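Workshop exercise sheet. Pairs work together: one partner reads the sequence aloud, the other fills in the structure field after running the prediction. Swap roles for the next sheet.
Pair: D.N. / O.F.
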Amino acid sequence: MGKYEYQNTNTPLSPQAPMYLTPEEKAAGITPNLKIAARRYLCPKCGREFSLFQSRAVACKYCPKAGDRCPNVRCPYCDSEFPIAGFVVPGNDRADQNIINNYADEVFNRWADSYNRR
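Structure field:
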């Protein structure tokens, strides 16, 4: 693939692989984990786009496994579920799955601690 050729949006990315961040992204505190979790994926069933964050915030909101390192990602439109390994991160590296799961759960736990208290 050439430098500027289109990359399939459903190509899994490893959070451990080198990833270019612009100076502006670095200044804003963006990390490779954030880029992967916020990246938009196409649902193989309904064809709509969603991100891991959107999946966890909308489709998995009331699931008891949502904050417990769930190995799946769920489409918020058609409610189909897919394994994170092979969909969001490469399927051959369990460490990638753990890294992205831990990151997403940490973000949502911080949010819940900050905004769900009375």
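Discussion prompt: The first strand starts at residue 40 and ends at 42. What would you look at next?
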